Amino acid sequence: MLRGFVSPELLFFSTSGTAVITVVLGGVGTLVGALYGSVLLTLLKSLIGSFTEHHLIVIGLLFMGAVIFLPRGFIGVVRPALAQRLTAARKP
Q1: Which of 7, 25, 74, 77 stands the most exposed, by the fewest C-beta atoms within 10 Å?
Q2: pTM of this structure
Q3: Maximum CA pair distance of the chain?
Q4: Which of 37, 57, 39 lies closest to 48 in space, CA to CA?
Q5: Are 47 and 39 spatial neighbours (Cβ–Cβ below 8 Å)?
């Protein structure tokens, strides 16, 4: 993009699919959720990829499970627990 050329690789499904998966895993509507989602997805790819070459199938199944059981993403689970902990720490 710096040279005025966009490679077709940037428009490939896996690139845009990875972006969607990171946002949904981390938490839709939050920047921190997308950051956590990208770290989580990178770790999962690395960890699962070391065991099998079909790591995309496993990640797809984990993604479906996250959509079903964690509709607000990872940050949706962490944020209430963190807020409760901070509130408890403020009370004398």
Answers
A1: 7
A2: 0.71
A3: 59
A4: 57
A5: no
